[in-house]
Design goal:
Elements (H helix, E strand, L loop, with lengths): L2 E7 L3 E8 L4 E7 L5 H19 L6 E6 L1 E3 L6 E4 L10 H9 L3 E5 H13 L7 E6 L3 E7 L2 E3 L35 H15 L11 H6 L5 H25 L3 E5 L7 H14 L8 E4 L6 H19 L1
Parallel strand pairs: 1-4, 4-7, 8-11, 11-12
Antiparallel strand pairs: 1-2, 2-3, 5-6, 8-9, 9-10
Helix pairs in contact: 1-2, 3-8, 4-6, 6-7
Length: 313
């Protein structure tokens, strides 16, 4: 039986998953930053070869790869990855195909999250949805009429870089006032520190500005409560803007940012309804549970569907 592999290249960890036609699912992960890009890809290739030899038939299957950033859709070469250096000009598909002898396909990680939602949450229903993936920053994917929309050059679905505040906070992309400058792990840390300078509240000497810690202490620290409110309002504005443009039936949110605190998002959804025009207020908001595996599973769906398309041709 053929095997389909999914790879999610992240800033901290790279996840590898295997799916066989017998519904067997195996996953592993590697520390991304400790290895050079080519060394990491060769190590993953070796792992794929070993798994394939043990568990798969001679039918070669395929590999799907998710990357956090931009790549050339003709050559597969990386243009720029978020929070990762040294990848520019490397084509992960070429390296992994050479290492494994299997066809490999690449896609933006947020589009793979949307593909996972399409298969797993919507069951391939022909509908419209906008997906937000929150972690250190914000990614997104758009589903139109039951298909993931990637735009003219494949760069569609970047809600993190829509402007929500004119001349606002600086964003890592070089602009000011982007949604990602107010929402996500990095943004929340900056906003919380800025608010602490205003309130001058004392903190434990060993305090770490992790999102979960900031949220946990928001009722005891005015600065943290304000930072959380700013983040919630900003996310609500960003969601409302996407709703007004695409008129989706669903909004899906996943990722690791404050995923243990669904009440954070319930408040975001309440605020969002106040920002969207009345005909659209019946929109359905959904939190994607256990979404830490969504991108790597989306990569498996990519490998499987692309392989089937080529077989039909």
């Amino acid at each position: 039986m053929p095997c389909f592999f999914g790879i999610d290249i992240g800033a901290s960890f790279t996840k590898l998953a295997l799916y066989t036609e017998g519904n067997r699912y195996i996953s592993d992960r590697f520390e991304t930053g400790k290895l050079s890009p080519r060394t990491l890809l060769r190590k993953i290739g070796k792992q794929i070869r070993e798994l394939r030899e043990d568990l798969c038939s001679n039918d070669r299957g395929a590999i799907g790869i998710g990357v956090p950033g931009f790549f050339n859709r003709t050559t597969g070469k990386i243009i720029r990855l978020t929070n990762l250096t040294g990848w520019q000009g490397i084509a992960p598909t070429t390296v992994l195909s050479h290492e494994t002898g299997m066809p490999a396909y690449i896609e933006n990680d947020a589009n793979l999250f949307a593909l996972y939602v399409l298969f797993h949450e919507l069951k391939l229903m022909r509908t419209n949805a906008v997906c937000f993936v929150l972690g250190s920053g914000i990614g997104g994917g758009i589903i139109l009429d039951g298909k993931v929309y990637i735009g003219t050059k494949g760069f569609a679905g970047e809600p993190g870089h829509i402007i929500i505040h004119m001349d606002g906070e600086p964003c890592g992309c070089g602009k000011r006032g982007c949604l990602e400058a107010y929402v996500g792990g990095l943004a929340l840390e900056k906003i919380a520190k800025k608010q602490l300078k205003r309130t001058r509240e004392p903190l434990p000497y060993d305090f770490h500005f992790y999102p979960d810690e900031i949220y946990r202490l928001k009722d005891r620290h005015e600065a943290f409560n304000t930072a959380i409110s700013i983040s919630q309002k900003a996310l609500a504005i960003g969601i409302a803007n996407m709703v007004e443009i695409f008129d989706p039936e669903y909004i899906f949110i996943g990722g690791g940012f404050l995923s243990q605190y669904p009440e954070f998002y319930r408040r975001v959804f309440e605020v969002t309804r106040g920002y969207i025009s009345s005909p659209r207020r019946r929109i359905k908001f959904r939190l994607v549970k256990h979404s830490e595996q969504a991108v790597v599973k989306g990569a498996i769906f990519l490998a499987k569907t692309k392989s089937e398309e080529e077989k039909d041709d």
